[in-house]
């Protein structure tokens, strides 16, 4: 005989979360996505997008970004205050990181920081979290300025680029990166610099303190687009032209726009449909056009070779760590090795699509030599020779290396606001 359905036993009434808790819960989800699942912060933002209030979404993102920027320093404070080291993935550690970063770096009053973080412990050691937070507040704890890089990153970059560069990278880490714009018409640089109160590191480039992009003069008419000066160099190294150019791995389209503005008839190939749609919107805003192809570069091939081929390969993106501190937490040696393998294969494919007399440019926004120097140095194909970059093609303060490649190590251009880390190589196909 079936038992009659009984109503579930009444649960003890839980205390309601203090206002502001949903933003902290979303921050916790973002951190979990980056640190435990290895996802990019941008991809994880869906977790915060469910929040009805836009300012909560912004807060969740700001908290998560700041925790990622300051993780070693936050964990050092936590570890020196607990009797036993909390596991890396313990909810208590996450709640403390979130509370401490707000109180010590984001200007949240300590009582609000802890009250909104405690519900994140969810039945865990609330008293411990409260106690550790209180001890640190009473002792006048502070966070290092600039923040420390993750020890493994500092070690890797010191080894690759020298201790001074790694220190410069750290110094750069606390500065808010400037806003760089690329002009569709480089001959109008002086005019736009004056209009926007900007400086310029080279023709076609403008640098401003951060600003609301969409309200700046020139946005509506599409006179420029946002692009870090380093990211603008690969397309610049192809120069002006009237022939055909392939832009491989093209979205969101900074380089496609540069090539189209420089007179090339561009085919932009991108695998991610959403990103390709963004590229299309970006082109429309700046009144430029290109043939857009949604395809995997490892499967697609053009009907005929092009005069210029630009491969901005998928990479660890450690060069953009200032804007996206999550990259430093997601890069593991195995991932870099896997990416380097893909990059080599893509470069070999891209080379087949260059016309004799044409150029091939390879770029990655990576600070890992395995993805830059190692890939370019290993590249050989019949008829190709390195086309060494000249110092005059780069902004003052950057220089090609002995092989004629461009390596932009961490801390570059620090005295004028810094720039992204990059690697760029250029070859010419003679036959
Ligand atoms: C570094 S971003 C490109 C940035 C872009 N060139 C620009 O200047 O705006 C790399 C891009 O490559 C795309 N991608 C990755 N693997 C790809 C593949 N196998 N085929 C085509 N696109 C790919 C990614 O979706 C991403 O949009």
Automatic annotation (TrEMBL):
Residues where S-adenosyl-L-methionine binds: 249-255, 270, 296, 312
Gene Ontology molecular function: methyltransferase activity
Record's compositionally biased regions (Pro residues): 1-21
Enzyme's top EC category: transferase
Pfam families referenced in this protein's UniProt entry, alphabetically: Methyltr_RsmB-F (PF01189), NusB (PF01029)
UniProt-listed InterPro entries: MeTrfase_RsmB-F_NOP2_cat (IPR049560), MeTrfase_RsmB-F_NOP2_dom (IPR001678), NusB-like_sf (IPR035926), NusB_RsmB_TIM44 (IPR006027), RCMT (IPR023267), SAM-dependent_MTases_sf (IPR029063)
Keyword Manganese recorded: no
Protein name per the record: RsmB/NOP family class I SAM-dependent RNA methyltransferase
PANTHER family per UniProt: NOL1_NOP2_SUN FAMILY PROTEIN _ ANTITERMINATION NUSB DOMAIN-CONTAINING PROTEIN (PTHR22807:SF61), NOP2 YEAST -RELATED NOL1/NOP2/FMU SUN DOMAIN-CONTAINING (PTHR22807)
Active-site annotation: 365
Domain SAM-dependent MTase RsmB/NOP-type: 157-430
Keyword annotations: Methyltransferase, RNA-binding, S-adenosyl-L-methionine, Transferase
Gene3D superfamilies according to UniProt: NusB-like (1.10.940.10), Vaccinia Virus protein VP39 (3.40.50.150)
